[in-house]
Design brief:
The protein is mostly helical and about 190 residues long. The chain contains six helices and four strands; from the N terminus they run ββαβαβαααα. It has a single domain, classed as Ribonuclease H-like superfamily/Ribonuclease H (Nucleotidyltransferase, domain 5). The two termini are about 20 Å apart.
Amino acid sequence: MQLLATWNCRIWDYERPDDFYAQATQSAKSVTVFGAMARGYLFGPYFFASTVTGDSYRAILAEFLIPDLLERLDVDFEEVWFQQDGAPAHVSNETKAFLVQTFLTRVISRDFIHDLTPCDYYLWGVVKEMVYRDRIIHSVSELQDAVIQAFNVIRTDKMDHVNRAMQAIRSRMQKCVLLNGSQLPHC
């Protein structure tokens, strides 16, 4: 997720899913953040020091996410499936090799099996809405603090939404197949 001067996202509201509004942009401050959801946990936020490359992405996975998964999830790691979007750093040859070495065939991503991620259709829109609601961001550190605060609010108050997003993966994949892989409507 990159929070820039302009951003485009949809925010899903479970009570009024068709009620959307547009808001003017904020500032040109930006940070690049990695976050993940799994079995009732929200992992992150993990911040990138600069532009996301295959090397920096793999470092976040190896140094932060995978140790957090091993520590928190009460499952055999061989049961864990890894799902990501198809950003270039995520599907570089080195990253694909790392993911196959770590998760074997349990990877869902572009150039793997599917490309439908709950972080894209739930998490990032909610985080952006919380970060930019009723405030103007003046610095990168203020933006990072706002992202951390948003993750903490989601962890304490919205984990039922995270769990519903995770449970919706199968139905979203089925809808994608019915639409021959085209973009899903608000669902």
